[in-house]
Amino acid sequence: MEARVISLPAFQVVGYQIEATVETFESGHGKRVYQELVGRKDEIHNRKNHNVILMQIYPLHCEFNPKVDDFVHLLCYEVHSADDIPVGMMSHAVSANPYVTYTHKGPESELSLAYDYLYGQWMSESGNEPKDYDFEIWDERYQPDSPDNEITLFVALK
C-alpha cells in the first residue's frame, strides 16, 4: 500500500448530515441518502464537480468505537460557496490541512482494510496522528461492488 502526505486548501461542502454507527450507515441508510443526494445534485448551484464526498467526523474521546458509537457522516459535494443551500441540506467548512491520502482499489466491502492500514500501521510507522475526521471521494471510478472500484481516502493529520 502506498500512502502519501499532501496539503489541501480550505474548502466547503453542501449535502446531507447523518449521525449513525458505521454499521447503521452501511446497512443501507447511507446508500439511500447517497441516492437522494445524487438525485438532487442540480439543486446545489455552486457545485464544483460531480464527485460525491463522504466525510466522517469522529468524537474526540478515546473510548470512541465506530461500530458502537454514533458519529457524523456527511454525504456532500464540494462547492465554490455555500450561499445557496437547498432545503433539507447543510453546509460544512473544512480548514486547510495536511492529509495522508491513499487510493483503495477493489470492492467497497474491502475498504476497511485501507482504513485499518492508514489508522494503524501507517500512523504508527510515520509518527503522525490523525485529527477527528477523514473523507472519501467517490468519482467516476466509484463502482462499489466491482473489483475495478477505486475510492481515494484522505485522513486529516494533526
- Give the % helix: 10-25%
Report the sheet-strand fraction.
35-45%
Number of strands: 8
Would you tell me the structural class of the helices and strands?
alpha+beta
Indicate the overall shape.
Answer: globular
Average pLDDT level: 94
Number of helices: 2
Radius of gyration computed on alpha carbons: 15 Å
Strand order of the largest sheet: 1-6-8-7-3-4-2-5
Terminal CA distance reads 22 Å
Short characterization:
The chain has helices at 22-39, 111-126; strands at 4-8, 11-20, 47-57, 71-79, 90-94, 97-105, 130-138, 150-157. With 158 residues, the protein is of the alpha+beta class.
Helix-strand layout with pairing:
Elements: E1 4-8, E2 11-20, H1 22-39, E3 47-57, E4 71-79, E5 90-94, E6 97-105, H2 111-126, E7 130-138, E8 150-157
Antiparallel strand pairs: 1-6, 2-4, 2-5, 3-4, 3-7, 6-8, 7-8
Description:
This protein has 158 residues and is of the alpha+beta class. It contains 2 helices and 8 strands. It has helices at 22-39, 111-126, and strands spanning 4-8, 11-20, 47-57, 71-79, 90-94, 97-105, 130-138, 150-157. The chain has an 8-stranded antiparallel β-sheet. 20% of the residues are buried.
What features would you highlight for this structure?
158 residues, eight-stranded antiparallel sheet, 2 helices, 42% strand, globular
